[in-house]
Amino acid sequence: MKRRTFIIAALAATAAVTVPVVYYSRSRDNLPKDPLARPEILAELTDEKTLQEIGIRYRKLFPSENTKERLKELLITDQNGRQTAPTGDLALSEWLNEKIRHDFSTFSTATVNGWVISITEARQCALLSLL
């Protein structure tokens, strides 16, 4: 392979990888800073519009969870029904990510708009769709 062909191919490959990364990183910047309404792990896989659509559909499937107050209450409650979420944003974000892992390990999931997600992620999307 000629040097020129190699350089052009390398630049094309770099652009092919960089453009989607930049797009998704910018789309995540529009998400709220509140960890309760920011499904971080799911946001790595899709855009804000899809997260909103998941939230809207989840609220239609579970009308008893159709208010900001109810969703926040459920999000800060542990698997034993106690409100035990930490108060700082970083600690709360880590706590929610652990809660999501627990949801998957206990098969506490929902299929919404073709996505198999944890109940915690679904509730985060639902809260996001209400903001």
For the biggest β-sheet, the strand order reads 1-2
Helix content: 55-70%
- Average pLDDT metric: 85
Helix/strand/pairing category: mainly alpha
Spatial gap, N to C terminus? 54 Å
Instruction: Give the count of helical stretches.
Output: 6
Order of helices and strands: HHHHHEEH
Shape: elongated
Oligomer class: single chain
How many beta-strand segments? 2
Percent of residues in beta strands? 5-15%
Q: Give the C-alpha Rg.
A: 18 Å
What does this structure look like?
It contains 6 helices and 2 strands. The protein has helices at 3-29, 40-43, 48-61, 68-75, 89-105, 119-130, and strands at 109-112, 115-118. Strands 1-2 form a two-stranded antiparallel ribbon. β1 (109-112) and β2 form a beta hairpin.
Tags for this entry?
mainly alpha, single chain, 131 residues, two-stranded antiparallel ribbon
